[in-house]
Here is the input.
Amino acid sequence: MKLFGTNGVRGVVNQDLTPELAMKLSMSLGTFMRGTVAIGQDTRISGNMLGYAATAGLLATGCKVINVGVAPTPTIQYFVRDNADAGVVITASHNPREYNGLKFIAGDGTEFGSDAEQVVEDIYYKGDFNLANWRETGEMSTVDIIPAYIDGILNKVNSEMIKERGFNVAVDTGCGAGSLVTPFMLSEVGCKVTTLNAQLDGTFPSRQPEPTEDVLTELSGVVVSLGADLGVAHDGDADRSVFIDEKGNFVNEDVLLAIIVKHVLSKKTGVVVTPVSSSQRIVDVAEESNSNVVWTPVGSIYVARTMKKLNAVIGGEGNGGVIFPEHQYCRDGAMTVAKVLEIMAEKGKKISELADEIPTYFMNKTKIKCADRDSIMQTILSSASGNVDTTDGAKIWYDDGWLLIRPSGTEPIVRIFAEARTENRVNELLEMGLKMTKGC
Ligand code: MG
Here is the structure.
C-alpha cells in the first residue's frame, strides 16, 4: 500500500494514522538523512500524540529535533529553509476534524518530492532503520519561530503604505494554526483587527478547516456589520487564504490569484506557474503584461518546484494557495494576506473593485467513478483532436473554453473540469466530458 498521497501521509487518527506509523515513518526519515529536523503541528487534538511519536523516531535515529510547537505549515517551512536539514509538519490541512497527517519538508523549505517520499517509504516497508547507539540518540530543543516569520513577510511588502491606510480587517482563522500569526501580523502593520475563531481548538467547533464560501457566512456578516475593508479566512494549517470583500461577498479564488498575478506582473514581467486546472483568467492577465503561463500537474509541489526551476515571478493554485518566490517556494497564507493589503493600498482600490477588473468566466466540475482510468484516458487521448495539453490528464482547448479530464492519483475516480465565458457553454463542455468518459 502506498503511504504518501498528494500531501504527505494523511488518514483518520488511530485508524489509518497511529503513533506507531508516525514513529516508524520518522525513523525512516532519520535513516534517510540524519541531521537537524524541525517538527511542528497545527491545532488538531492528536497533534501532540503524533508529534511526540515522530519526535521519538527522529531522536532514535540520531537526529537533532527542534520542536517549534503549533505554527502554520508555511511558518515551519520558512524556518526549515534557514535552520534545519528537514521538517516534519503534523497537519491534515483542510481535511475534516478526525484526520491528521505527516508532511515532510526538504532542507530548502519545499515539500518532499515523490522521489524522496519513495525512499522513505521503502525504508519504512523494509523496516531497515539506522538506530543510533545510546551516546548518539538525539537531543531536542524548542524555539518560537513566529516573530521572524512575520518580520520576513512584512519586509517583502509595502508595509509603510499598508500602515498609512489603517485597514479594518476581520479574520476567521477557523481555530487553526493561523490564529497565532495572521491577527498579530495585521496588528503590526497598523490594521484594526477583529478575530473570529482565533482560539486554538482541534475540535474546530465553529466550522470545518476547509474555508469554503458556505462556512464563511459568519465572517461575511461580521465584515458587513463592522464596515470592514476585508475579511480573511485560512484553512487549518494556514497555507491558504480566502477573502470576503467589503460588501460581504466571497472572492472567487481564481479571481484572487488573477488579482495577485496582475499586480506582480505590473511591477516585473516573467513566467507565471499554475496547475492545468486553473482559470483562463490567469492567461488573460499574463497576456496583458506580455508574460507566459507555464502549466503544471495539479499539486502545489509541482507549482513550487517549477517556479524554482524557471525562476518564475509568481505562481499558485485556484484554491487560495499562492506562492511568492521572493519569500519562499511554498503556499503561504499570511504572505497572501499581506500582499492583498499591499495591492489595495498601492492601487487605492477596494477588493471588490480589484475583482471587477478581472475577466468573467464560469467554471464547473464533476467526478465519476472509474475502475480502469488508464484505458479510458488512452481512448480520450487517441480520439481528442486540436489543442490538447497532457500535463495532467487531458486538457482540451476550444475557441471559447476548455475541458480537463484528469484521473485521480489516489482514488478510482476521474475528475472533469470545464471553463467558458457563459454558463451554458460550461454545462455543454461538462456534458461532453461525461460522454467521453462513458466507458468508465
Ligand atoms: Mg493547507
In short: The two ends are 24 Å apart (CA to CA).
